[in-house]
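## tool: complex_structure
## caller: assistant
## args:
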Amino acid sequence: MSNENILLRVDGVGKEYDGNRVLKDVNFTLEKGKILGLVGENGAGKSTLMKILFGMNVIAETGGYEGSIYLNGEMINFKDPVDALKAGIGMVHQEFSLIPGFTTAENILLNMEKTKSSVLSRLLGKRLETINMPEIRRSAQKAIDTLGVNINTETLVSEMPVGHKQFIEIAREIDRDDVKLIVLDEPTAVLTESEAEILLHAMRKLADSGISIIFISHRLHEITSACDKIVVLRDGVVIVEKPAEGVNIRQIAEWMVGREIEKTAEVIHRDVETQTQKNDDIIFEAKNLWVDMPGETVRNVNFKVRRGEILGIGGLAGQGKLGIPNGIMGLFETGGSMIFNGKPLAINNTLEALKEGIAFVSEDRRGVGLLLDEPIDWNIAFNAMQVQNKFLKRYLNGLISFRDEKAMKTVAQKYINELEIRCTSEKQLSRNLSGGNQQKVCLAKAFAMNPSLLLVSEPTRGIDVGAKKLVLDALRKDNEENGTTVIIISSELEELRSVCDRIAIVCEGQIFGILPPEAEIADYGMLMAGEYKISEGGDKQWQR
Amino acid sequence: MNMDKNKMGKLLTASAVPMLFLIICLFAIPLSQFSGSYLLNNIVTRLVRNSFLVLALLLPVMAGMGINFGMVLGAMAGQIGLIFITDWGVEGALGLILAAIISTPIAMVLGYFGGRVLNRAKGREMITSMMLGLFISGIYQFFLLYVCGSLIPFKTPGMLLSRGYGVRNALTLNVAKGFDKLLFIKIGGVGIPVGTFMIIGLICLFTVWFRKTKLGQDMRAVGQDMHVASTAGIAMEKTRIQSIMISTVLACYGQIIYLQNIGTLNTYNGADQAALFAAAALLVGGATVSKATIPNAIIGTALFHLMFLVMPMAGKYITGQAMLGEYFRMFASYGVVTLALVLHSWKRQKDKDMDRSQFRIAVINPPES
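## result:
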């Protein structure tokens, strides 16, 4: 009976990228006029699933997908997104795809303009029909009214607040006559609370008019309040598919981040706890730090780092965790104040940060981290040579200095052995190394400076399991043997929980709380979703 | 109030360049000792001669491809048409129309080729189109020097070089003033070729109408954001090629109008400066490489050529040397193009910085919600 009403059926869908499995046997259904909330951490497979649904070229290029998807009972296999649009699937992306110099109305009807034919157009083809502006405005107004918002159709998009742009994108999708399914990818991320409220309202209105919606959001209370059904993805597998009624936020948070129970047992308690218990020995402190890093904005961050500890910084992508180390190193415009070893640290000054003994392993390995066309030993010695005048032979009282090739070779070979960098020799170009080995070279480059504070950003992104373990072990070894204080910024919560003494969770450009690694998984999830903050004293402050 | 200030500022920066040139001209006019009617007569002539070429640049700017220095391709096509009808001995307006008909397919093919090349050089269209012009100029010279008169027979031996093949360096066109003579009227000593002005009016109407078509709308969209336009299903590359093709064909007609007014054809380098002077005129009129209007083109043509007229004479009377003004012409036209390009990228950077700094303010003082 319910079969009649089902619009979308995803049946056993799986996907592998170069042997890397991102989706496994995904099944769920969506009925007509219902809203499905899709929840999952970054990398859980949400975007891959949406790409499959839309027939994006990447999917076919990387070998297609397993399983099948049915729309209105018919199996679909789109060649490109235009096919998907024709079949009545609309998508609102996270990045705005609007033309800034066009008005609201022109944007809503972009490439779907109403036109009038004329003698010339009959002669020379459809593209020379003239634009019917009043008709465009009327059609755009209708779509805006459906959403229940108040936006002038004549305003230029470039002069409009961010929130309105989101509505225009949605209006564009519903303006199509035959739209059956709309995918909203984190539409509320850029909206204020009241705008988000209006959007949720508009979604319900759309659903009541018979359009189905897939709603992707990290704000869990929006999922519970707006959706009819919840699907939680984790590591490419559907963890839960159930009606939204009666589900509470905490449960979703737990489904979202929770791994199997036995995995949490892997949290290793370290013997050096004595060191980290010394609360008062603060090596680094950030006060009201803001960083203008595009896509990873830090708004207002305060935290203290204890000498000798390993501090983890986690959180979802785009919330600002990557902005923190990049701001400390002065790689992006930064404000606020920082104290290092009891002295104020200059902001926006990379050289001083390096000279003071802060080293940084960037998440942008190939862009910032390495000199790709130089050999391994140059890469390892580079920062130490530039900043600390190591590996140099000096003549004439330092007037002339030459590279000390021998010292460079020695240090390179030391790290090649210690970190098991797989290479032909220390003269191999770093471009020709695999991702994991490149990352090891980046680490060696930081170690060669003997830093007292080491910032490591996304140390295991895009490298294989064996290299992951090596990298994390090397970090811990450096911490234990040399007493280096380490800050690890990572999207992988499990990894942070396995090596860190404390873990700070960043949300919306702020630190929402600092938890011990053995804290309950649901608490991490709630912090990541920004549901509440945990103060230093351990009190929960509900945000929504 | 704040908004008004913003708008005023924008208006001022938009008209700064034309204002500057107007002031230079106002200083130079009394120094040049030209009479008012002489100047007026000459300005009308220059407008007739050049404005069509300048108007041919508008569409590629709209499509985000900057100034189409590749319009020399069209100019060369127009010249080939003129050479053929001169050989055939067709005269008057009929000859010009025939020349246009012959050269249109050549211009279309060259425009298509140019568009294809520019699609492979997105973001570097201007320099690429300039180099493309120089390259095609070589082929054009080969065609006229070796193919004409040997493979393609010529009826008029007087047009060929004394060796028997290859077109002469300079040709007198027997279609001279073909359009200008139509409906030629004189008002108070100023001769106005109404016929040619009607053709220029027609191209203005075409441009206005074209902007309102679906294709024109697509071009604007592509010009503002290629990526967004193509995700909305607009055939981005095709649209860009079409804009260059239209521009090239218009430049071809523009060159025909230009040459019928002058009356002689400098066979081998008559087209070389066409794009530079047209671009300079457009930019003097207050256009940028991302925004250009019909008034920009007309005002710019008038101002630029007014300066061209008065500067050599003013220079001569001040220094006693006519060459100085001549130098200033070249200096000014190259200078204005350079300045416009530098200003454009500077302004783009500035706009980006402004956006970021506003964002920063919002970050530091979050709005109370």
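## assistant note: Chain A is about 35% helix and 25% strand. The interface with chain B takes residues 81-82, 85, 97-102, 106, 110-111, 113, 115, 121, 126-131, 192-194, 290, 292, 297, 299, 333, 335, 509 of chain A (CB under 8 Å). Handing back to user.
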